[in-house]
Amino acid sequence: MSFSPSGEYLVSLGQDVQSSIVICHSPTKLWTDGHVVCSTPVTSSKMLWCLYTSSSSSSSTFPIVVGGDVGVVFFFRVVLGSAERTKGVYGKRFKIQPLLCAIEASVSSSLVNDTTTVDNNNNLDIKSSTIKVMLCGTVTGYIYLFYESRVVNRIAAHDAPINALSSANKNIVTAGKDGKVKLWSYDLKLLHTFNINSFLPRPYHLSCHAIVGNKEGTRICVGMKGGEIYEISLQSHSYMLLFESHSRGELFALDINPMNADEYVTCCDDGVVMVWSISRKYCLRKVRVESASRAIAWSLDGELIVVGFGSPIVATDLTVKDGEIEEDDEEQEYEEDHKSY
Fold first, then answer.
1. Which helix (H) or strand (E) covers residue 128, if one does?
2. What was the pLDDT predicted at 129?
3. Dihedral over alpha carbons 157, 159, 162, 166 (to 10 degrees)
4. Residue 34: is it exposed, middle or buried by C-beta count within 10 angstroms (0-12/13-18/19+)?
5. Would you give the DSSP letter of residue 196?
6. Strand, coil or helix: what is 326?
7. What secondary structure letter does DSSP report for 203?
8. What is the 3-state secondary structure (H, E, C) of 74-122?
9. What is the pLDDT of residue 130?
10. Residue 134 and residue 125 in contact, taking contact as beta carbons nearer than 8 Å
């Protein structure tokens, strides 16, 4: 979903067969009077994101953008209660590839003027030192720049897919599957690289899945595949773990520590057992059991935690231990096969 910069319009992208979009309008911007303006199917291909660009953007004639995993990009505008569209153009210089995320940002006009991009009067736009474009993160680790619904430039950013983009004041931040967060200047020059794999505590999955920067450009928050959220200071380059959680499937199992009513334990389809504090409201310790689990029990003396494995969710990075039991006292582990019972 994406709001227009004015807050008056909202576009949402569905997961139906045709990846339909719905455009809503609230004249008061309070959304108590919100109503649907129009809706339209996009394509049978899987679309991953939608973006409502600003009215001052160079692509404002078609301000609504939808992109997806086949590299197709569609630009929409509302005319007389219906949605008109145009298709994004790559040209011969740029490879058509899946676009995983997108933001609108102000970048140096030299990034656009170095190409053959022209304005509506067929003249190069050199009036301003910055210009608004759409930045897209690609599966090959490049940032594609769209201007007037065309790719006009690309920047090599990561060695893996770029899963998230955000702005932080005048800078740009990118997050990739390689576990790296990179800070870029407005002319897309690399300023700093943060390697999340070096953070303590380390994330359980290296891939970065979400990122957002504050308006002052001083801090960013990074969401990881494993459910952790880190806050990073762009000034001091320090970091802290804000939150962690389970990250896959469903959570069936929970038990209270019989010797300490402030502690409880959970396990999930992500193959991680976590011990939590009720009063402190965060995870005290956790261990990877390498298999999806949906049953757990704490022994009466509080010394042992027993985990029962099994789940209909099959993950390639986990071991299938359906029907097994694992007992952990932090010194001894064993498994007992109950499949024959």
1. none
2. 86
3. -40
4. middle
5. G
6. strand
7. P
8. EEEEEECCEEEEEECECCCCCCCCCEEEEEEEEEECHHHHCCCCCCCCC
9. 87
10. no
What average pLDDT does the segment 180-194 reach? 96
Compute the distance between CA of residue 23 and CA of residue 210 in angstroms, rounded to an integer. Answer: 24
| Domains, the chain | 2-243 (2.130.10.10), 253-337 (2.40.10)
CB of 186 within 8 A of CB of 170?
Answer: yes
d(CA 97, CA 30): 38
- Give tens-digit pLDDT for 288-331: 888 899 999 999 999 999 999 988 877 766 777 777 666 665 43
Question: What is the value of pTM for the model shown?
Answer: 0.83
Give Cβ neighbours of residue 23 (< 8 Å, ≥ 6 apart): 9, 10, 11, 36, 37, 38, 39, 64, 76, 78, 83
Question: Which amino acid, residue 168?
Answer: A
Please give the Cα distance from 180 to 158 (Å, whole number).
Answer: 8
Tokens at 21, concatenated: 């979009």
Both tokens of residue 127?
């009036």
Instruction: Map tokens 């660009």 to a residue.
Output: 53
Token pair for residue 170? 């005048």
Q: Pairing relation of β-strands 333-337 and 2-3?
A: unpaired
Dig out the tokens for 303 from the structure.
């010394």
Can you tell me the distance from the alpha carbon of 318 to that of 146, in angstroms, rounded to the nearest whole number? 39
Mean pLDDT of the chain: 87
